[in-house]
Amino acid sequence: MTNSQNLFSSIREEISQLENNLKKMVYAKHPILYEAAKHLLKKKGKKIRPSIIFLIAKITSNNQIVKLEHARLAEITEIIHTASLVHDDVIDDCDTRRGIDTVHNIFNTKVAVLAGDFLFAQSSWYLANMNNLEVVKIISKVIIDFAEGEVKQGLISFDPTITIEDYIEKSFYKTATLIACSCKATAILSKCDQHTQKDLYLYGKHIGLAFQIIDDILDITSNTDTLGKPAGSDLKNGNLTAPVIFALEENRQLYKFINDEFYSEQDIFKAIRIIKNTKGISKAKDLAEEHIQIAIQILKNRFVCRNTKSLILIANYILDRIN
């Protein structure tokens, strides 16, 4: 198992500063909107996305120092990610996230949607103030991708004909695009050549896809306490993920539950039991590992330094979440 404390030790100061800055960046004049935004920052995640940015900033700079522009990009990325979670929780009707009540559960759906919109707007404002058109273009595309991903997911809900290719495309829009684009934007800010930018984009893409696949496995294998949100949420919302798609190839009983749109909570439990009795989870894990190995190989081919090792450890840490 990868030790998360050692993993982030080289960027502990940067992460601490990021958390302080985020509180200032989400300031809103309306008290309810501000409370909603502040509530989101109480959710202590691992800060994987900004951590990757900080580490890439170090391996692409001569003195291994994170510049102010890199730090601001990390903050913008975390705000965009947080905004997307607020909208996801509304769409999926989740009551909790990381063990904390969701914004729409505490306030209401209207406030939650507005809080998400506010965070997207704040991130766009700070992004524009970076005065780097290339970075503005690539990060702005992420917000478009998020919207496209949600629409695509909505159109194929409870559709048992979904293919792994469809799933990977949807996962790119929902998760991998932010990591890929922020990795490339970090390289742009470091004035790296186009080959390095492309390689780091691909590293982020494959890390992002693996991250989403592992998340989807955990939705099947973990309990609500571990997940910080209800287990089986994907099934309930008709979001058919890699473990389900692979399990469908092996056990056609699942088709009935999907076609009935998991009519009862018992149907979800029965479906999870069927999936666990197939090779669906192990095949999904193999798929995640393929993407992790591609990401690691990209780094090994181009960079050799301490912070590269940390990026490789992050890749392994993502995979370790299901062990």
UniProtKB/TrEMBL annotation:
Carries keyword Oxidoreductase? no
Bilayer-spanning residue ranges: none
Among Gene3D superfamilies, the record links this protein to: Farnesyl Diphosphate Synthase
Q: Which cofactor does the UniProt annotation name? A: Mg(2+)
SUPFAM superfamilies reported for this sequence: Terpenoid synthases
Ordered alphabetically, the record's keywords are: Chloroplast, Isoprene biosynthesis, Magnesium, Metal-binding, Plastid, Transferase
GO molecular function per UniProt: metal ion binding; prenyltransferase activity
UniProt family annotation: Belongs to the FPP/GGPP synthase family.
Q: Show the Pfam families listed in the entry.
A: polyprenyl_synt
Q: Give the protein name, as stated in the record.
A: Prenyl transferase
This protein's superkingdom? Eukaryota
What PANTHER family does the record tag this protein with?
ALL TRANS-POLYPRENYL-DIPHOSPHATE SYNTHASE PDSS1, GERANYLGERANYL PYROPHOSPHATE SYNTHASE
GO BP, one example? quinone biosynthetic process
